[in-house]
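ok trying this again, last paste got cut off
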Amino acid sequence: MSTPEKLLNGKRIADMFHEEFFSTNFWAMWCTTFAFEPWHSAIEFRRYLNRFVHLFKTFDTMSGIYRTKFNQFDSIVRPLLKWLTDQGVTVQLGTRVTDLRLTPGEALTVEAVSWVRDGKSEEVALTPGDLVLVTNGSMTANSTLGSTDAAPVLDTTNWPSSASTPRSPTTSSSPWSTPCVPPGRRSPVRFTSTSSRRRSTRAGTTPRFSSRPCRPCTGADTAAG
């Protein structure tokens, strides 16, 4: 938690802990709550630890978590979106950003943003007074949803080359093959809970899980937890 982020650049969680860590109760609770896997960014893991350190004492019961009156989308996202649009902010959905064109030199200064929308490529030039805020990948990238009856489909379309792709869980006993064990399951599964909190599961039922492949991120890739 106290390691400077610059020393964690490009490292996975599995690079920072012994294999025994991934069989602890703490890891089981942490990964099912926040959807972490051993190959996720050590920087993002550190940020979450520091952000939620006050919950460690009651983490097994989640009694210290403040919950919204409704689900997070209706309680936070929708009111925030309405407020932003009322202030004149343009929210452009259905858009895939394809490039951030940088100015020459050592500084990371964006001079233009390119995207594809409705099959058409567009670009906007920026001025010195413009700000560009980018989340260039996260542990929930390529998320897919499952249900009580079907497992989520693993989406690997944006995985990196095989040299940095997580090893198969069937070919190694390393932390890569130590997935989360969600509540209500007797054996490990390759899925992580879609919920931001732990949920009790009735006997004989299967909770909803999400398959979340992710490449190792750098400090520039992750947003603060």
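PB: full thing came through this time. The longest helix spans residues 72-86.
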